[in-house]
Amino acid sequence: MPAVIIDGQQVAERMRSAIAEEAAQFAAQHGFPPGLGVVLVGDNPASHQYVRMKRRACEKAGMASFAAELPQNATQDQVAAAVQAMNDDPRVHGILVQLPLPPQVDEQTILSLVSLDKDVDGFHPLNIGALAMKGRDPLFTPATPTGCMVLLEEVGAVLDGANAVVIGRSNIVGLPVALMLMKANATVTVCHSRTRDMRSVIQRADVVIAAIGKPEYVKGDWLKPGAVVIDVGTNKIDDPGSPQGYRFVGDVEFASAVNVASAISKVPGGVGPMTITMLMVNTMKAAKRRVP
Ligand code: GUN
Question: Which range marks the domain in which residue 202 is found?
Fold first, then answer.
C-alpha cells in the first residue's frame, strides 16, 4: 500500500489561520500587533528569499515585521548593534537572525545577544542547552525541527520507544530535532557524512528525518517497511522537461520511498511551510509572554 503523503502546506494553512485569529485578538486587546524583527546580513539569495517568505507570512497573519538589512561586509559590532536595537524595541516581540552569517561575524556571539524572551528561532545557547537537558524546557524551540515534530504528530507516529534516525547534524535542523525526538522518548541515532554503512542504520528506523542536503540520497529500499519519513531537504536540480528548467527534490527518493514508507512528507510543500508557521507560533507566544 503506498504511503500516506504528509501535506505540510495543508497543516500550515490550518495553523496560520488560527494564528491570524490570535494576532487579531492580541492587536484588538493591546492596540498593537505581535511583531517579528529580522536581521539579515549579506546577499545570499536563498536567505533573502526565506526572509521575504517569513515576513510576508507574518504580515498576512496580521503581525508586524521589522527588518535590519546589513551588507555582506558588515562588522560584528554593526550586527550586534542591529540585534541590540531590536532587543530594545518594544514593537518587536520576536527576533530572528537569518543564518548563515558572513565569516567575519561570529555566529555564537550574535545568537547569544538575542534577548532570551525574544529568541523565537530558539538558537540562543541557553534555549538549545535547555532543549538538550532532561527535565528542562526551552522557552522556544527552533522552527524547522518543531515543524517536523508537528508533522509526526499529525500522522500519529508513535515516538515512545521507536528507533528514530536523523540524517544530518546541523545546528539548525539535525541536532535540535535529535534532541526533540529524545525528549519524546525515541531511541535516536544521528547519521552524518562520516557515518559508516548509513543504509544499514536507516534500515532499522521506524522514523527517519532526512536533513542532509543531498538530492534523493536515501532510496526506498534503504527504508524499513512502514517507516515514517520526514524529508527536510529542498534541493534544486536541473529538469529540462519543466518550464523553469529546474525542480525541487528532497533528500529522499520519493518515487521509491512512497512504496515502502507508511507516511512520507512532500517536497516541496512538506516541512518548508511548517518552518515559517512555527516561527509565527513562536512570535505569537513571545508577544503573549511580554504582554500577558
Ligand atoms: N537559515 C536556514 N534555516 C534557518 C532558520 O530556520 N532560521 C534562521 N535564523 N536561519 C536559517
Answer: 143-273
Q: Which amino acid is at 48?
A: H
Does 223 share its domain with 101? no
Residue 155 phi/psi, 5-degree rounding, is: -95, 10
Q: Which atom from ligand 1 is nearest to the alpha carbon of 144?
A: 6
What does the pLDDT average to over 138-149? 98
260, 220 in Cβ contact below 8 A? yes
Question: Which of 94, 49, 104 has the alpha carbon at shortest distance from 71?
Answer: 104
With respect to residue 219, please indicate whether it lies within any of the assigned structural domains: yes
Q: How many alpha carbons fall within 13 Å on the CB side of residue 263? A: 19
Q: How far apart are the first and last CA of the chain?
A: 49
Residues 68 and 148 in one domain: no
Centre of ligand 1 to C-alpha 172, Å, is: 6
Q: Which residues contact 12 (CB under 8 A, 6 or more apart)?
A: 273, 274, 276, 277
Which residues are identified as catalytic? Answer: 54, 98, 121
What pTM value is reported for the model? 0.97
Count of structural domains within the chain: 2
Q: Is residue 13 part of a domain?
A: no
> Is residue 100 predicted with pLDDT exceeding 80?
yes
pLDDT (tens digit per residue) in 27-79: 999 999 999 999 999 999 999 999 999 999 999 999 999 999 999 999 999 99
- DSSP code of 86? H
CA distance 213 to 176: 16
Q: Which atom in ligand 1 lies closest to the alpha carbon of residue 96? A: 9
**Domain presence at residue 289:** no
